[in-house]
Design a protein that fits this description.
The complex is a heterodimer of chains A (414) and B (154). Chain A folds into 2 domains: 46-109 and 281-413, Rossmann fold, CATH 3.40.50; 112-276, Dimethylsulfoxide Reductase, domain 2, CATH 3.40.228.10. In chain A, 37% of the residues lie in helices and 18% in strands. Chain A contains 19 helices and 18 strands. Chain A has a 9-stranded mixed sheet. Chain B is 31% helix and 9% strand. Chain B is an alpha+beta fold. Classes of the chains: A alpha/beta (414), B alpha+beta (154).
Chain lengths: 414, 154
């Protein structure tokens, strides 16, 4: 084993301590990474492919076809980029500006609003290193890292010894899970598992806020007030608390007002931070890159140098209203992640797909370009779920083109 | 897990000594301590009338075939390499506090009991385990921290 660490881009934890035994084009053995990471790193061994109408063509033909589609489109959609490097994302934003595109990623139906609140400093946040070194009360609200980010608990949030938490999880940390079902994370949290009915999050937030100020907490689903008061007391005593917000909580809130209320109430009594459990390895990077460029984290429409923003420019709304007339999908699979009624609008417009693996989207695409896997076959940088920039270099060599390179070629051709 | 008496009930009870033990009861105890395997009892293995008993006893001991000396079994089909056990194991923490004890990759692998390879936890250096040796204690650090019950002691 050599002490040459690599970064795993399997999820947004971006674990930077992965040891790999490898040849020039193959990975032989992976140490320390979880099963998600191992599968991701060993994922794609496919040959270089450029497809037009599902038939193999050469690079020039695929690019000229792409350029033709983008030139003919009045309002093309650029979607995806959650698994791309910062460099490729910036290139895609530039491309969007040039072709007056609507640009969006999966955060518009996921963590977009939370990341926006974090980058505009509306909510206090911290890094995962802070969690490891100082965190004493850790809440997993609507998230299940044991399954979605397997090393979350062992590398950062619960089990490791930190500089100010030398005695570790047994004595110095309390993990609390709030969820609608007993997930694997909830199992680890043991007695500190609060099971609520679907959509019961807002009521629990308000009950907790009453509990924090010593009032009797009430919920329509009659959650035992004694237990909520007990929880409120634990939260009050926290020296460094963290809420890991998962999609479970976000989907049950109409807007973020209850979350702001809770964070304010918690920070009046103790010290609480919030970290979103972002799924894709660089979704937060896309949000931050687009924010620096335009002032918005997602759902943006470029129009001759003017930036428009609104929910009508998100992928779901623009496909529903059928305002886009071509789609460039990078490293994403909207046919799998969107509801059928929305995704079927994609069938009416030409799709260009770029990505390392074959998906439903690549099968329905007019043009498909097989690109290198970010972090395994291509180097660059990405932003972790807590906003930390992580740089990485490629582990193996590939003949597949980089996303950045293809986007640059498209720019030049346009 | 079953006990020696239950296993004795399934044996031929002829005290033939072919296994090297003085009696069938002694053989049952040797099975329980994993000193011998069910195959060591020749009549049980070869005579058709004991076929059912042989299969039953063999299936009882099958899961423990891959077990280490401390009886630790990792169900590889369940484990997904989260590393909770690696970081929580008190021996791992004591032997590599800045590596696995702090949630990182191992810095000193020579005395680690558990480590992740290819996304699955692997047991090694079992003589370091607190369940091993003369002063053993029933430590369960790796079991209680596993979200999917992939680790078991037999």
């Amino acid at each position: 084993m050599e002490n040459n660490y690599h970064v795993c881009t399997g999820c947004s934890l971006l674990c930077d301590d992965i040891e790999v035994e490898y040849g020039t084009e193959t990975i032989n053995k992976i140490y320390t990474a979880c099963r998600v990471g191992v599968a991701h790193m060993k994922e794609s061994k496919e040959k270089v492919t450029f497809l037009v109408d599902n038939k193999p063509v050469d690079e020039e033909k695929a690019l000229s076809e792409t350029v033709k589609i983008l030139k003919n489109a009045k309002n093309p959609l650029i979607f995806g980029l959650g698994a791309s490097t910062n460099e490729a994302q910036k290139q895609a934003i530039e491309l969007g500006k040039k072709i007056n595109a609507t640009i969006d990623d999966s955060s518009s139906f996921c963590f977009g609003s939370v990341v926006e609140a974090l980058v505009t400093n509306k909510i206090k946040t911290c890094t995962l290193e802070d969690v490891r070194n100082k965190g004493d009360v850790i809440i997993f609200w609507g998230s299940n890292p044991a399954d979605s980010h397997p090393r979350h608990l062992s590398k950062h949030s619960y089990f490791p010894r930190g500089s100010e938490k030398q005695r570790g999880w047994e004595e110095e940390r309390t993990a609390i899970a709030i969820d609608i079902r007993k997930s694997h994370t909830a199992k680890i949290c043991g007695n500190y598992f609060i099971q609520i009915p679907q959509g019961g999050d807002v009521e629990l937030i308000d009950a907790l806020i009453s509990g924090l100020s010593g009032k009797l907490p009430k919920t329509s689903y009659n959650y035992p007030p004694k237990k909520i008061l007990e929880l409120a007391n634990i939260l009050k005593g926290a020296k460094f608390g963290i809420i890991f917000v998962g999609p479970g909580l976000i989907y049950s809130l109409e807007n973020l007002a209850p979350l702001f209320r809770l964070m304010q109430a918690l920070n009046e009594k103790s010290n609480f931070h919030l970290v979103p459990m972002v799924g894709n390895c660089n979704m937060r990077g896309f949000n931050e890159n687009l924010f620096t460029e335009t002032g918005y984290v997602n759902s943006v429409k470029f129009e001759n140098g003017i930036v428009k923003h609104g929910s009508e420019y998100s992928i779901v709304e623009s496909l529903k209203a059928k305002t886009v007339d071509a789609a460039l999908i990078i490293g994403s699979d909207p046919f799998s992640s969107l509801p059928r009624s929305i995704a079927k609008s994609l069938l009416e417009i030409p799709i260009i797909s770029m990505g390392p693996s074959e998906t439903l989207t690549t099968k329905k695409a007019k043009v498909h370009i097989n690109t290198a896997i970010s972090g395994v076959e291509s180097g660059g940088s990405a932003i972790r779920m807590d906003g930390t920039l992580v740089s990485f270099k490629p582990i193996v060599e590939t003949k597949n083109p980089l996303e950045e390179y293809i986007l640059k070629r498209i720019m030049e051709a346009l | 897990m079953t006990n020696a008496m239950e296993i004795y009930q399934m044996l031929p009870k002829t005290n033939c000594k072919k296994c090297g033990k003085t009696s069938c009861m002694a053989f049952a105890v040797a099975l329980m301590t994993r000193e011998l395997t069910p195959d060591a009892c020749l009549p049980l293995k070869e005579e058709p009338k004991y076929k059912d008993s042989y299969e039953k006893i063999s299936s009882l001991f099958k899961p423990s075939e891959g077990a280490t000396e401390t009886g630790l079994i990792v169900h590889e089909d369940l484990c997904f390499g989260c590393g909770n056990c690696v970081v929580a194991c008190p021996v791992n923490v004591a032997n590599d506090p800045y590596g696995v004890g702090s949630g990182n990759a191992p810095k000193n692998t020579s005395k680690l009991i558990l480590a992740i390879e290819e996304g699955i936890v692997k047991a090694r250096n079992v003589d370091e385990c607190r369940r091993f040796g003369k002063n053993k204690i029933l430590c369960n650090g790796c079991i209680v921290t596993c979200p999917v019950e992939a680790i078991e002691f037999v």
